[in-house]
Amino acid sequence: MARKNFFHLIILLGVLLFVSCGESVEEERARTRAEQARLAAEERAAFKVAVLPTLDCLPLYLLKDSQLYDTTKIDIRLKRFTAQMDCDTALIGGSVQGAVTDLVRAARMQRKGTVLKYVAATNAYWQLITGKRARLRELSQFSDKMVAMTRYSATDLLTDIALKEAKTKYPAYKVQINDVGVRLHMMLNNEMDAAWFTEPQATAARAAGHFMMKDSRKDSLQLGVLAFRTLDVTQGKRPQELALFLKAYNAACERINRNGVQYYAPLIKKYMDATDQTIGRLPKLSFPIAAEPRQKDVDKAAAL
Predict the structure, then answer these.
(1) pTM of the predicted model, to two decimals?
(2) If I label 213, which of 86, 147, 164, 165 is the partner at 20 to 30 A Cα–Cα?
(3) In the prediction, which pLDDT does 35 show?
(4) What is the pLDDT of residues 59-75, one digit of tens each?
């Protein structure tokens, strides 16, 4: 009888253990769902900006990685992409409030229905770099050559300007290479005749012995811009968040101007995958505080 009772006790303990485990699993699932819901709510409420591994984004990386972030008292989240078109897709879809882009891309987005507010002209410029094996030294030599760029962007406009100036005997070919890292890799491996780069990729290409053919600054164009969805920064708490964000952004620009770009080598390495050689060769750059882009640049971009 004792053995039978012991056997029943074992079964009962097993049942109780099974039930308790079942409850624990269900509780864990409930906690997981609650945690996922909390994180999703925080993500929706956060102030999100799409960025690239390019030097015009340095104030944003500094803002996020320094005590300047704490001064905003808002949840700023940088969404990192390697292609400008992906930043713009996030902006169009509303998964971010703002993005670092260019006026040509921004004008196209607006024509397609995404109303934007230009809060800051950036210091971005682009250089047309030719491969050292291509041996291109004059724009007139671009007949039947390939130029890496992004469609409906500053680099598209700059390619048109360059080729119009070149008056080549035969057309050159625009090749859409959107990822800035892939574009640089192709240039370093002599897989492209020419390509447009902003910093620090332009310096990396020049440091590897490739030739700088053209600089957008010579055309008096300032096409870089920090743009926000108008709908997302004019309602609720967003206007106040934008004001606090821009205050921190301006402080970051002032710090970089005061200390110099090379001072922030760790950030440039971390977010832009730049080498010590590239960082050491970066030109002296000034980062303007937030101000709307010039109207003549907006008009020029809208004409593409």
Answers:
(1) 0.86
(2) 86
(3) 65
(4) 999 998 887 766 667 88
